[in-house]
Amino acid sequence: MILSTYLHNLSDESFILLNQLGVSYVDLYQHVLPCYQKGLHRGLQEFEFNKDEIVKVIKRVRENGLCVNSFFAPPIRKALFGEPEGEKQIDNVCKFIKLMSENSIYLVDLGLQDVRQGPIGVPGRYVKEHRGGYKMDAFSVDLMLEELEKKNMNAPWAHNFKEKLSFEDYFKNCVRTLNAILPIAEEANVKLMSHFEDPPIDDKRLLPGFTNPVQIRMLFEKINSKNFGISFCCGTRYESGIDVFQQIRMFGEKIFFVHLRNVRGTITTTKGYEEVAIDDGDMDMLKVLKTLKEVGYKGAVNPDHLPLFLGDNYETNKVGLAYTVGYIKALLHHLEE
Fold this sequence. Notes:
The chain contains 13 helices and twelve strands. It is of the alpha/beta class. It has one domain: TIM Barrel. Helix 12 (285-294) crosses helix 13 (318-335).
């Protein structure tokens, strides 16, 4: 296994810090591209395919001694709603996949979860303080229900009130979209993965999403391709209340990427959960890695959500990154002993 982290900007400072931490692989979101509209959720971005801009970003990463492990695909939200404009989105993704292959990047994240626009697009989240006052996000079912009752049309989750889509139509549109894109991915030797719903909760007042292993397996059964798999978020999968080790064994070779983060509490047992520092939650993270190794996983583990320690903020949480990277590197070292 290897360690990768998200690269949130292309500043010299970011590259220096990652090199100092000994991080060799990065995962890229669309917001590193000049066309990204700040403050607008990625699913709502009006993406215009620009080969030169994308190649320029990849080149800058490599010039700074880093490898691109994965790159998040352009938005497909309109395709998932079955809208005519979705055809252009599918075409953009196909062009993007071909470009990734041309640049020796063989893992692309596809936003099947961007219908809900979670986790920000789902009510019920709040900030929680932990040992010594470090901060991370948390989720409460009761708070979610309270906010849903208000039906605030100006809230970040107002799309759940304004738009309509049944799970059946969503599933059908996911299958159609994947069937249009996967032949291109297979030809280009690129793997597509999807991170399923965070928070993993069902409620008819929310737009649909894949919230449990049964639904995810239904999709895998419908999509018969070795090039389609899961971005396995240990936190999200644990939050669901279903045994995380059982889920690792269930998905096995379908796991293409891992978010290695810890959580306290689950939706089923405590009606919510708290995201916590990697050493401060319910999960034994070394056991998580051992189970991943048991099923043959050899890809990247990424810390994903990071704690805000003293001096950190959401733009530059250097301390949280350094702490988490160091902890994961120690776990990986122990794993290989």
